[in-house]
Design brief:
The chain is globular. It is α/β, with parallel strands linked by helices and 253 residues long. Helix 8 (191-201) crosses helix 10. Strands 2-1-3-4-5-6 form a six-stranded parallel β-sheet, with helices on both faces. Helices cover 47% and strands 11% of the residues. It folds into two domains: 6-133, Response regulator (Rossmann fold), CATH 3.40.50; 177-245, Orthogonal Bundle (Arc Repressor Mutant, subunit A).
């Protein structure tokens, strides 16, 4: 039994680039090019007609840009994945594209093998990110400073004899850090959901998250489903962007 062919649509406003990508994809095994668009509006229309598995999307195009085209495609055709293929890897290009629903992001210096891998990755449910983009995400992760826990008010009896805040039972033990941090989290996330989100942002798989947190993969999937619903993200790429935007990194201590 042969592997299924991945049907790909190319969107780029530069004719020579668009035709070059189409020719390159034609040389790659397991890939069939089903259309080529010169702008985002045409890309949306072609997706409606051709129902490709993956769209290779440029960002800066006339009429409708790549971010808006990605948003429309992912909204109307959630089964079609989008891999951005662009000259730009700055934050102003990267994060809006991920938030719009792109699951992959490559720069145009990518070779055929890297493009093929990104297409295969997004088809399998993973993120297809270039090394340059992965480095930028790691830099953002290191730049994000953990939020400090708020001070816990002392009970009616004041601070304990040791000078720390009193626990509800009067034992003088400090409150758990997670309990204090829970009130700071956006969209009603629990501390555990935020920990899972931070590990997704680090690039860990479900199995790796389960090992890190000493829970089952089924439990990890439940947390992911819950946090996706609360934050209104559609996939792991958007979850990464959400984590960076809200500073949800380094939750485990």
């Amino acid at each position: 039994m042969t592997d299924a062919v991945t049907r790909v649509l190319v969107a780029d406003d530069q004719t020579v680039v668009r035709e070059g990508i189409v020719m390159l994809l034609g040389l790659l095994p397991g890939i069939e090019v089903v259309g080529a668009a010169a702008d985002g509006e045409e890309a949306v229309a072609l997706v409606e007609r051709q129902h490709p598995d993956v769209v290779l999307m440029d960002l800066r195009m006339p009429r409708v840009d790549g971010v808006e085209a990605t948003r429309r495609i992912r909204s109307a055709h959630p089964g079609t994945e989008v891999v951005v293929l662009t000259t730009y890897a700055d934050d102003e290009s990267l994060f809006p594209a991920l938030q719009a629903g792109a699951r992959g992001y490559l720069t145009k210096d990518a070779g055929g093998e890297e493009i093929a891998k990104a297409i295969a990755d997004v088809r399998s449910g993973a993120a297809g990110l270039s090394p340059q983009v992965q480095l930028r995400l790691l830099e953002r992760l290191s730049e994000a400073s953990p939020k400090s826990a708020p001070s816990v008010p002392s009970g009616p009896g004041g601070p304990s004899a040791a000078g720390g805040p009193s626990a509800p039972g009067g034992s003088g033990a400090p409150a758990a850090p997670g309990a204090a941090r829970a009130g700071e989290l956006p969209d009603g996330l629990t501390v555990r959901e935020a920990e899972v989100l931070a590990l997704i942002a680090e690039g860990l798989s479900n199995a790796e998250i389960a090992q890190r947190l000493f829970v089952s993969q089924a439990t990890v999937k439940t947390h992911i489903n819950n946090l996706f619903a609360k934050t209104a993200v559609r996939d792991r790429a958007q979850a990464v962007a959400y984590a960076f935007r809200h500073g949800i990194t380094g939750m485990q201590q």
